[in-house]
Amino acid sequence: MKYFTMALLALFLGTVPSDVAAQDQSKPLDSGIIRLEPGELPDYSDLLLKGGVETELGDNYMMTLNTDVITSNIIFAEVPSDSTYAEMSLSDLVDVALVKNYDVILQKYAVRISQSNARGANANFIPFLDLVGEARYSGNRDENATRTATVAAPASGLGGLGNSDDDEERVTTVEVPTTRETRTRTLQGGFESGVNLPTGGNFGLNGMMTQTENKSEDGSFIIDRTRMYNSSLELVFAQPLLRGGGLDVGTADLRRARLEDLSTELGLRIQLRDTVRSVINAYFQLLQTAQQLDVSSDAIEERLRFLEETRTKYDVGRVAESEILRAEIQYLTELETAINRLRQLDDQRESVLILLGLPLETPISFIDITEELATRGRVDIPDYQSALAEMLSGRPELLRQDLTMKQTMIDQRVARNDVLPQLDLDARYGMLDSDEDYEHSRGIENNDWTAGLSLRFPLQNIARREAAKRASLRVEQEVTRREQLERNLSQEVLSSLRSVLATEAQLTLLRKNVEQARRNLELINGSFDVGFASVTEVRLAQDDLFNSETRYNNALLNYQIQLAALYLALGRPLF
């Protein structure tokens, strides 16, 4: 964690030129705690208090900031020091975001899904063994069946009543209608095994033992009952020779799944990096707004002091009434600016909480490192050619695009193979035996084999030919997209370098500007006190100072954001 924090703050967030170092070190670093906690939506009219000021102009109630409302709802609200999210540093924010950010969590699910797909594709080439068992009963009922019956005919003579001892009884066979039921029971058990070959074919070995029993009933009489045992062992081989055959086609699904797994892993890496960058941006933007509020606080105090001094001079007749109104307008404008910045700070707090994956009602406070940043030295910036070479070797987006190109090339080879005629080789060798006795049925004495080729040549193959064309066009499309991406990333590097170098020069000028503006205001205020400077000159000097301080603080914190953008553009890690 220590290395993590140092890497974020010292290596990847950058510093400012040594000649830009701030001179005012009166505030310790640990006192710069920005504490924000949510509450009810503030009524911004409550941020203002009315203080009665009697003048010759009549009752003129001036507005001042209600600091009680500010501290309770917006900024510097107390967060218990033992709270989980109290006094968060940038590295603390990054740690939380990498675990709780919803986009990161979703991408991690995508990685697990792609890993499962890769394992599933790999399992297609692992030999399988299935145990097979089956029991089946069937029956047939014939209502129109007949059976043969034997009956005795009467003796000869009148009415069948003969009295001769020579008369013999005669036997006659007749067909008698009956209902016949036939029932069959089949029990089967064995195994099936096989393996898919990388060439697109498959090889299998199957063994089976079957018992079949037939029973026929005629009414309540069993007229036939047989039992037969069958055993078999069979080797099967099938191999496409044209369409569907070859290593490119046979392993296409496996290679696609592995490339997709790598691409998803890169997507997680990119998502983590982008999340860290978003946290960096949000953190320094929040510090910017906090610094602007500090400037607003100083400006409000100065505007109020100047307004009261203008009133005093009006009372003794040294300034016109219009100068009081102008001073009051400036004071009210500063109040309006402060309210806008307070609202912006609350919006930024919610943005940070969303990035961290925390509920919006979570109390949180941040460490303000603005003063520490102002004391750091300059960061080494590579030249454009070195930066470009670093980008080409370090950006994961380029590698992910290369993986996408490889996937489309696999699809192209499969689509081209699908246009070929279908020529398949198959072979089978089997051994079998059957007998009414179970022991005799296991000898597997008989064997047979078959082998052959089958050819199918489609005369109309428009759909497959068009699919092959689309696959070739997608390859060209991804190659063009790769060139476009490389060009865009090169421009991103160039733009980031320009921004960093320009901000370094800007910081040097702004620091000098702040010093000059502060000195100028002191001189103008002294001249105004003795009557050698006008009200307008004082207002202009105040504007110069407050604007210079705001621009300097913004540039100082933007410099950190720009350094993070440069490191991202170069492909360097941000965490």
- Please describe the biggest sheet, giving its number of strands, its sense, and whether it closes into a barrel: 6 strands, antiparallel
CA-based shape: elongated
Name the average pLDDT. 81
Percentage of residues in strands:
15-25%
Please work out how many helical segments DSSP would assign: 12
Tell me the span between the first and last alpha carbons. 11 Å
Please tally the β strands and state the result: 10
Uncertain parts: 1-31, 37-41, 50-77
- Structural class comes to alpha+beta
Strand order of the largest sheet: 4-5-6-7-9-10
Succession of helices and strands: HEEEHHHEEEEHHHEHHHEEHH
The helical percent reads 40-55%
Write down the Rg: 46 Å
Structure description:
- The protein is of the alpha+beta class and 575 residues long.
- The chain is built from twelve helices and ten strands.
- It has helices spanning 2-12, 67-73, 90-100, 102-123, 247-250, 252-315, 321-356, 370-373, 384-394, 396-417, 462-529, 535-570; strands spanning 33-36, 48-55, 58-65, 128-153, 170-196, 202-218, 221-240, 364-367, 422-435, 446-456.
- Helix 9 (384-394) crosses helix 11 (462-529).
- 24% of the residues are buried.
What is the strand and helix layout of this fold?
Elements: H1 2-12, E1 33-36, E2 48-55, E3 58-65, H2 67-73, H3 90-100, H4 102-123, E4 128-153, E5 170-196, E6 202-218, E7 221-240, H5 247-250, H6 252-315, H7 321-356, E8 364-367, H8 370-373, H9 384-394, H10 396-417, E9 422-435, E10 446-456, H11 462-529, H12 535-570
Antiparallel strand pairs: 1-8, 2-3, 4-5, 5-6, 6-7, 7-9, 9-10
Helix pairs in contact: 3-6, 4-6, 6-7, 6-10, 6-12, 9-11, 10-11, 11-12
